[in-house]
Amino acid sequence: MAPDHHFALPDDEELLKHVVDVHCHPTESPIVPEAVRACAVTVCAMASNPNDQELVKSLALEHPDKVIPCFGYHPWYSHWIAVRPFSSKEDHYRQLFIETDYPNAAILSDFYRLLEFLPEPFPLSELLSELRTNLTSFPNAMLGEVGLDRAMKVRYGSGDQPRKLSSFHVPIEHQISVLEAQLDLAVELERPVSLHSVQSQAVTLELLARMQSKYGQSWRNISIDMHSCGLSAETWKLLSAAHGNIFLSLSTVINSRSPAHRKLIAQCSPDRLLVESDYNDISFSTQRTWDMVNIIAGVKEWRVEKSWNEELEEGVAGAVHILEENWRAFKEGKHEDKNFQTRRKRRLRDFFPRPNKDEDEDSA
Question: Which domain of life, per UniProt (predicted)?
């Protein structure tokens, strides 16, 4: 399917009410109340940086029936966050970006050009305090968007200005410190997580293993969604076998760029799949999320219901019903270790078709 192909939306509005866009960024565009009201699906609205936490909070307060708030700090903004003491703005950013005591003229020129666009650093302790307040204020709130990104270069400019890339990357060690502190809080408050991982497979796997070792059952009490998951099918098989609390979600805007997402869907156990739009305009959430419902259903050979109360023949899966059950399990957490798959399959057996051997490989 081409990335710009769209599936016809169902006539039954009740069916769409059971679809959840588990990852989107509606506050990155001007909020039009009519567009929010017209959105037919539930959306998980992600925050990313210190400036948009309040925007997400306001959106959720105004539309509690449509919006699940997600608070957290994205790796693209992790350089704004200070994990070590600093004497000045310049001192903080030098610690991150200048690796030598004697940088050459080109590096210094690029650094000082970038510095004028960067905000005053935010101490991590202060942001964690705000994050705790936001998460506890909303019992249904998630942690997100958080993660790791080795590909990202820091941009010049801010806001709506044209932004070009500098030569600087945020050190992965710094990103890990920011992420792990947020995951610690998610474990404490038992909140699900939307996780970004780009060109960071090895360090992501290491971090998840460390969290499991550190927290044991407390780690399995929360769920992790690998959002717009770009892992290979082989890596996903290893990850899902090691972690019974890891789910994946896919978006057409990111994953449909490559045919590899179909292999990933085929490899993934049916009860670990979620759907998302990853869009920055709520006007597109319904269509983009519905497109991914249909793509997953096509790969998994699930029937896509025409209405919520449609009666399907015995042994035929209803895609929206399956994905809603997956979302419920993701929200609830409390995953058992070795018995996780057995428990989930028992809950779903009434409407799952018998999976073929290829589909069920990673649930063994």
Answer: Eukaryota
